[in-house]
Amino acid sequence: MERSLPWLLLLLCFVLQSRAQPDNTGFISIDCGIPPKTSYVDNETKISYAADDAFTDGGSNHNVSLEYVVGPRGSQRYDNVRAFPNGARNCYTLRSLVAGIKYLIRATFFYGNYDGLNKLPVFHLYIGVNFWAMVNITSLGVVYRYEAIVVVPDDFVQVCLINIGAGTPFISGLDLRPLENRLYPQVNATQGLLLLMRRNFGPTDNSLEIRYPDDPHDRFWGTWDSSSSNDWKEISTASRVDYSVGDIFDPPTAVMQTAVTPRNASDNIRFSWEPVPQPNDPTPAYTAIFHFSELELLTNNASREFYINLNGEPLGVYTPKHLTAGGTYDSEPFERTSSYNISINATANSTLPPLINAVEIFSIISTAVISTDSQDASSMMAIKDKYQVKKNWMGDPCIPKTFAWDKLTCSYPNSSRARIISLNLSSSGLSADISSSFGNLKALQYLDLSNNSLTGSIPDVLSQLPSLRVLDLTGNQLSGSIPSGILKRIQDGSLNVRYGNNPNQCINGNSCKAAKKKSKLAIYIVIPAVLVVLIASVTTLFCLLRRKKQGPMNNSLKQQNERSTSTSHVLRNSGYGDNVSLRLENRRFTYKELEKITNKFKRVLGRGGFVSHPNPAPPYNGT
Ligand SMILES: *[C@@H]1O[C@H](CO)[C@@H](O)[C@H](O)[C@H]1NC(C)=O
Ligand SMILES: *[C@@H]1O[C@H](CO)[C@@H](O)[C@H](O)[C@H]1NC(C)=O
Ligand SMILES: *[C@@H]1O[C@H](CO)[C@@H](O)[C@H](O)[C@H]1NC(C)=O
Ligand SMILES: *[C@@H]1O[C@H](CO)[C@@H](O)[C@H](O)[C@H]1NC(C)=O
Ligand SMILES: *[C@@H]1O[C@H](CO)[C@@H](O)[C@H](O)[C@H]1NC(C)=O
Ligand SMILES: *[C@@H]1O[C@H](CO)[C@@H](O)[C@H](O)[C@H]1NC(C)=O
Ligand SMILES: *[C@@H]1O[C@H](CO)[C@@H](O)[C@H](O)[C@H]1NC(C)=O
Ligand SMILES: *[C@@H]1O[C@H](CO)[C@@H](O)[C@H](O)[C@H]1NC(C)=O
Ligand SMILES: *[C@@H]1O[C@H](CO)[C@@H](O)[C@H](O)[C@H]1NC(C)=O
Ligand SMILES: *[C@@H]1O[C@H](CO)[C@@H](O)[C@H](O)[C@H]1NC(C)=O
Ligand SMILES: *[C@@H]1O[C@H](CO)[C@@H](O)[C@H](O)[C@H]1NC(C)=O
Ligand SMILES: *[C@@H]1O[C@H](CO)[C@@H](O)[C@H](O)[C@H]1NC(C)=O
């Protein structure tokens, strides 16, 4: 027993930690729609994907239509979805985050005719209370990927799907990755980035996608469309490409080992993109990050130096350093325009043509809408979980007002976060004891819990709610006497408590006999309760010690955040270039490409029979 105790505690730690929490890299990786409480490890990345039941309580699971089932492993993520036919707003809540740091949040959508209706939906995505993107599914067999980089203000974040009356929202996958604050300096508390494309120049294999573990931040680096690459040729190196000290974009070395240069040495590198309209913004503002590294060892008299131009106006001049990743970005978004033409051309002094290793292009999204007070929101989520309240209790409790939770009233101060000032859960079928979370709704003025099946005693923490004026506990199964703090508030007239019709309540000592009869029962309850508390305390202590030993992720993040000097160059202007178009569908890949990927990784494309595999693997039999 003594020997097995640590193991038991360890197991308990895992049980307690595994639910809805980041793993030790801080990653949260969800495969929406797989059976509840299951998980699997992705063959390629070794990332563990969890079912989504611990993150949302809306919607239902569906398998994609048979002809779109890619296989048991690999692209397993796109075999099933969670769909939300009910409710205007449905959300995922990702917990145990570090408030105030940057996160990459990525949602993926593969329709695959899961409902057999062949009906492609359009819906809106929100990060917390801020608009993220319009999801416009225009093909059954395409994976749509939406990625944002934002500062998360609380220790949790919600990702919400909004039904706009244009089809049922659904989702295939949801990822969250923490980023050190030195990365993506364009991102701050009020402004985030929405990825348009992240391209690795060089490889001609279209299906090649570099991600975790090559990229420790698990960004996806796709290749450009080879049909528009005829002006370019690849150069590459097998040597390691190092980061500059304090590089603020951390491109993975595998991406920086390849580059393109014009096939005709006197030509330019040109590519372009067009703005993707959003419902509230037909021409979003864009920004780009250009990654460069010299891959050739230059002789003394050789030099490589080039201009980066946007729509014919120079953004800056750059000289790549040998086997060192560096980059440029513009601290201001580019001027809004109907097309963005980039051209990179050699300066008069340069003996070598220009090159480029990678580019990331983002539009700017506002994250200026402020959510409900963090503690109020967390408390409401805890209350919702405890009493399994359904109603419309999804997403932020107060914001936007049109989606505010039923049964509560919020105040909306002009210069601070919304607060919950009244909560009326009368006749709501609540059972169990009164949650101490009510005591964390610090702005509460009115609390009505009448006509439920609440048991146990009245928690004295309620007396510490400074603004509480009415507490209605009528018609429950509460027992014990009224705690002294509340009595005091009753006596000084600051709190009106209604507690009639609680058969076991002893008020002024007169009806306590009933309660005394139950004292034996109380012992039966108390002893196991004490045991549970004891075990919980020991476990928590054990878990804490264990975590301390491992070094909490927060600390390492903070340390990394302190790295700040940068050798990256900040460009001053914005401009625009020319016309070799990079393909814009970088957030998605076609089913054909999926096939290629699956082929490449020898994944089983079983049941659909779309692809003839050289060595067909046996059909997948579940588990
Ligand atoms: C999805 O398919 C699997 C096996 O192919 C099956 O076990 C599961 O019940 C299906 N899920 C739904 C929601 O139909
Ligand atoms: C969705 O995309 C299609 C094709 O690009 C376009 O025709 C349609 O207008 C878009 N829907 C919305 C609501 O913007
Ligand atoms: C975020 O950056 C934008 C653009 O530089 C700036 O206008 C805004 O004030 C910044 N917000 C905060 C909270 O620093
Ligand atoms: C290379 O480009 C220059 C300038 O655009 C042009 O004059 C020359 O003919 C090109 N050479 C070849 C081989 O295409
Ligand atoms: C660089 O120097 C080498 C000899 O050291 C010479 O052969 C070559 O032509 C020179 N190149 C240029 C561009 O001056
Ligand atoms: C290269 O770009 C610079 C800066 O925009 C410009 O002055 C120059 O004319 C360009 N050269 C060519 C050959 O396009
Ligand atoms: C070219 O070289 C000369 C002499 O080294 C220098 O003065 C000039 O600034 C350089 N021009 C560019 C565009 O780098
Ligand atoms: C809050 O803003 C509204 C409208 O902007 C204004 O009418 C109201 O007086 C403001 N309230 C306070 C307390 O500043
Ligand atoms: C609270 O809700 C109950 C039942 O839903 C209702 O009868 C009562 O009037 C409400 N209280 C207030 C102050 O709105
Ligand atoms: C108490 O709640 C039940 C449902 O939970 C409801 O049917 C009943 O009318 C309520 N009684 C009062 C007095 O509000
Ligand atoms: C970008 O290039 C295309 C093709 O050359 C051209 O039609 C378009 O006007 C250019 N855009 C801008 C803003 O210069
Ligand atoms: C994934 O890994 C498992 C176990 O190693 C293996 O049986 C399976 O064939 C792999 N699947 C793919 C698609 O590589």
UniProtKB/TrEMBL annotation:
<dbReference type="GO" id="GO:0016020">
    <property type="term" value="C:membrane"/>
</dbReference>
<dbReference type="InterPro" id="IPR003591">
    <property type="entry name" value="Leu-rich_rpt_typical-subtyp"/>
</dbReference>
<feature type="domain" description="Malectin-like">
    <location>
        <begin position="30"/>
        <end position="364"/>
    </location>
</feature>
<keyword id="KW-1133">Transmembrane helix</keyword>
<keyword id="KW-0732">Signal</keyword>
<dbReference type="InterPro" id="IPR024788">
    <property type="entry name" value="Malectin-like_Carb-bd_dom"/>
</dbReference>
<keyword id="KW-0433">Leucine-rich repeat</keyword>
<dbReference type="Pfam" id="PF13855">
    <property type="entry name" value="LRR_8"/>
</dbReference>
<feature type="transmembrane region" description="Helical">
    <location>
        <begin position="521"/>
        <end position="545"/>
    </location>
</feature>
<feature type="region of interest" description="Disordered">
    <location>
        <begin position="553"/>
        <end position="572"/>
    </location>
</feature>
<dbReference type="InterPro" id="IPR001611">
    <property type="entry name" value="Leu-rich_rpt"/>
</dbReference>
<keyword id="KW-0812">Transmembrane</keyword>
<feature type="signal peptide">
    <location>
        <begin position="1"/>
        <end position="20"/>
    </location>
</feature>
<keyword id="KW-0472">Membrane</keyword>
<feature type="compositionally biased region" description="Polar residues">
    <location>
        <begin position="553"/>
        <end position="571"/>
    </location>
</feature>
<dbReference type="InterPro" id="IPR032675">
    <property type="entry name" value="LRR_dom_sf"/>
</dbReference>
<protein>
    <recommendedName>
        <fullName>Malectin-like domain-containing protein</fullName>
    </recommendedName>
</protein>
<keyword id="KW-0677">Repeat</keyword>
<dbReference type="Pfam" id="PF12819">
    <property type="entry name" value="Malectin_like"/>
</dbReference>
